[in-house]
Design goal:
9 helices; mainly alpha
Length: 197
């Protein structure tokens, strides 16, 4: 748990996604995005427990395809956020994304990050005890513990980021700048994922 918590508090794409959603759309959006990230992690746990993530490690083309799809998705979210902020202070503010859409985007953002699958493949097996029963069962339990601590960290990020954004939000200009900053963050994350760094 100490290793998992240390890794979970290290900023990465998931945490930045939650912070961006929280700052741009408020506390509920941040909480739902954190829960979406947690649900996406369940997919990775299942894949690792079934041994399928070894495919990403052994077939570079599969890894690159998933990486580029994830990068494209993050850029798409960023462009949408920036375009939604255009229109000036007098323009009506576009309706925020539904909580269901935010949840789904959190899941997709996490699932399309192949580094998460590779992380689970490299990290969780270190803690599996061959004499302790089924390796798949142990992976699932360890993965769920990691996911629970990560979700708690992301929920805290959502609360902190939404609270800070509320204090900064004075007028339409500040909200527009927050949406643009969030969009720029998503685009930067997508580019970073695309170039593999």
């Amino acid at each position: 748990m100490a290793a998992a918590l240390t890794l979970n508090v290290t900023p990465g794409p998931d945490m930045l996604y939650v912070a961006g959603r929280s700052a741009a759309e408020g506390r509920a959006a941040g909480i739902v995005s954190a829960l979406g990230i947690g649900a996406g992690t369940l997919v990775h746990i299942t894949v690792v427990a079934l041994g399928l993530s070894a495919l990403l490690q052994s077939v570079p083309v599969a890894f690159d395809a998933v990486r580029l799809a994830g990068a494209g998705y993050l850029v798409y979210l960023g462009v949408r956020a920036i375009l939604a902020s255009r229109g000036g202070a007098d323009a009506p503010r576009p309706a925020p994304a539904s909580l269901g859409a935010i949840f789904r985007q959190g899941v997709v953002t996490n699932v399309l990050n192949p580094k998460v699958a590779l992380f689970f493949l490299a990290f969780l097996p270190q803690f599996v005890d061959p004499s302790g029963g089924s390796a798949a069962s142990q992976i699932v339990v360890l993965g769920l513990l990691f996911d629970a601590s990560g979700t708690l960290v992301n929920l805290a990020v959502a609360l902190l980021a939404s609270g800070a954004a509320m204090r900064l939000r004075g007028g339409g200009r500040a909200a527009t700048m927050l949406r643009r900053a969030s969009g720029g963050l998503f685009i930067a994350l997508g580019v970073r994922l695309a170039i593999g760094k």
